[in-house]
Every structure is written in structure tokens, then in C-alpha cells.
Design brief:
By secondary structure, the chain is of the alpha/beta class. The protein folds into two domains: about 130 residues, Nucleotidyltransferase, domain 5; about 160 residues, Nucleotidyltransferase, domain 5, CATH 3.30.420. The protein contains ten helices and 13 strands. The strands form three sheets. It has a five-stranded mixed β-sheet, sandwiched between helices. It has a five-stranded mixed β-sheet with strand order 11-10-9-12-13. A hairpin with a 4-residue loop joins strand 5 and strand 6. Helix 1 packs across helix 2, helix 3 packs across helix 10 and helix 7 packs across helix 8.
């Protein structure tokens, strides 16, 4: 049986594994992303993780990476990644790693990997959007079994669509005030609520626990989050008409605090269109326990000869 290395590379954590062609994880490694020191330090961390996985006793045929962006998948280049906090604008990700690891490498956006993982393991239909909620907000769009991209193969950064123009309370490293990621990513939601309330919150998990425990002030912000998420999803629906929208990432675990209200608002907002042609998709949290990006990276690695053709 064939085996590959798959890696889901985010702004906070790395999840890597040896995966077989049936989608079974043979060996897995979790690590905090080492961003201080820039690309040389992170590159060394990635190499060390890959070498450890290469010693799993399985013959590895390729490596697949799903990474936070912006990026250009086909050329294997990171373009000033928003959630890495580096000043360098362009990093030859695949070229640099290939020199050291001596294996075929396939590279794409982490949300693209997530939607491909859902599809590969037959959890989602051919028209699916995957939204990753963690350090950032990633968007992977699969329409008629094709990944949608922008001009020249650039991955579309749908997380930076503007929801509230010039709202400087919602900070995102992209530099545009009021973008979706500034409000809706787990990390930025914590910053936004902290700024608005004057209270210091540790992380999204703490916010979720406070809301579930009856904190009225925090609960109000989850209600506002639900409205903003509905606004965002309604825009995606009328752009792409997906059959399904899947949430993944660490903050997706808080979906019970916003998703019921989000669905209600969407039903109201899209009522006229829905009456004539059913456009409201199924919306759910991934059942893959935050490994859909990892599975998608594995799928890409198994398809390395034709993936970017």
C-alpha cells in the first residue's frame, strides 16, 4: 500500500502525518508553528517533522502541504502569508523544501486541502465550500468537482471580503479594516471582543466557555458574530450556489453558539430566492475532527503527478 506525508500548516499549529491511500493515519505529529525567526526557522521545523515521519517504517512517495496563504499553488510560492507575521513578501516554499527532502512536493491553500479532504473521503458532494476558522479564515470552493481559483491560478482570499467598511475595531493583518477574517476567525474574534468590552480574554476557548456558562456580555457578541457569519455566507451562496458548506478548524467547535442563529438569518435573507429555486445549502461542522486539511494534503500528494496539470 502507498503512503505519503501530509501536513496542515497554520499560523498557530502544525498537524502532520503519514497517511495511506485509504485515508488512514499511520503516524501523526502535532506542533506549535515556529514563526519567530522567519522562514529559515519554520523551514527547519518542517524538515525535522518530515524526517521524523520518514522514519515511520513506511516508504513515502510524496509530500502534500495545505498552508495558510496568500499563496500561488502551482508555482509553490508563499505570498506574504497574512497569519505568519513576516516582512518577506515571497517565499519559494516548494523549491526550498524539495532541495532538502528530495521528494515530490504538492502545495495548496489549507482551505482547498480541507474541501478536497472532505470530498476524497466522500463526506461532501461535488459542490462544497469549506470554511476554516482558526488563526485566520480560509475559503476553499469546489464546484462541479473543480477547485475555483483566481487569475493566473492565484488562490482567492475570500476571508478578506469586506463586511463592515472602515470598522477599525476588527483588526486583520491584511490591512483592510472590516474584513471577514477580522471579525470571524477565532483569534481575531477574541481581539475584537476584548477591544469592545475592555476585558482581556485568553483565547476563543475561554470565550466559548463563558458564553456557555451564561456570560451575557460575551453571549451578545456571539449573537453579533452569528449575524456577520450569516451575511458572509449569504454572499457566498449567491456567488457559488454550493450544495453544502462545511466548517472546520479549532473555532468551528464553537459552532453551536452561532450556527443556529446564522441559519435562521440566512433563511430570512434568502427567502425570495429559496422560494423559486432551492439555494440554501446544508451547513455543518466537519466530522473529520479537524483532519480534513490533513486528508486533503494527503490526497494532493497521492495525485502529485497530475494535481497541478
Amino acid at each position: 500500500m502507498k503512503h505519503v506525508i501530509a501536513m496542515d500548516l497554520g499560523g498557530t499549529k502544525i498537524l502532520a502525518a503519514v497517511v495511506n491511500e485509504k485515508g488512514k493515519i499511520v503516524k501523526q505529529i502535532k506542533a506549535h508553528t515556529q514563526l519567530e525567526g522567519g522562514w529559515p526557522v519554520l523551514k527547519n521545523q518542517i524538515v525535522e517533522i518530515c524526517r521524523e515521519l520518514m522514519n515511520s517504517g513506511k516508504k513515502i512517495t510524496a509530500i502534500g502541504f495545505g498552508s495558510a496563504g496568500p499563496l500561488h499553488a502551482k508555482s509553490g510560492v508563499l505570498l506574504d502569508p497574512t497569519n505568519f507575521g513576516w516582512k518577506k513578501k515571497k517565499i519559494n516554499f516548494v523549491k526550498d523544501l524539495s532541495k532538502v527532502l528530495k521528494l515530490p512536493i504538492v502545495f495548496d491553500n489549507d482551505a482547498v486541502a480541507a474541501v478536497l479532504g472532505e470530498r476524497w473521503l466522500k463526506h461532501s458532494p461535488a459542490n462544497t465550500i469549506c470554511i476554516t476558522l482558526g488563526t485566520g479564515l480560509g475559503l476553499g470552493v469546489l464546484i462541479d468537482d473543480h477547485v475555483l481559483r483566481g487569475r493566473g491560478g492565484l488562490h482567492s482570499e475570500g476571508g478578506h471580503l469586506i463586511l463592515r467598511p472602515q470598522d477599525h475595531d476588527a483588526h486583520c493583518e491584511c490591512g483592510a479594516p472590516g474584513c471577514a477574517e477580522g471579525f470571524l476567525s477565532g483569534v481575531n474574534f477574541v481581539k475584537w471582543v476584548s477591544k469592545r468590552t475592555g476585558r482581556k480574554f485568553k483565547d476563543a476557548k475561554e470565550l466559548s466557555e463563558l458564553a456557555k456558562g451564561g456570560d451575557i456580555e460575551v453571549s451578545r457578541y456571539f449573537a453579533e458574530y452569528a449575524e456577520l457569519m450569516a451575511q458572509y455566507l449569504c454572499s457566498l451562496v449567491v456567488l457559488y450556489y454550493p450544495t453544502e458548506i462545511v466548517f472546520s478548524g479549532s473555532f468551528a467547535q464553537a459552532a453551536d453558539l452561532f450556527l443556529p442563529q446564522t441559519k435562521k438569518i440566512m433563511a430570512e435573507s434568502l427567502a425570495r430566492q429559496q422560494a423559486s429555486h432551492k439555494i440554501i445549502p446544508k451547513i455543518r461542522v466537519s466530522r473529520l475532527n479537524n483532519t480534513n486539511g490533513l486528508m486533503g494534503a494527503a490526497y494532493m500528494a497521492f495525485q502529485y503527478k497530475t494535481y497541478h496539470s
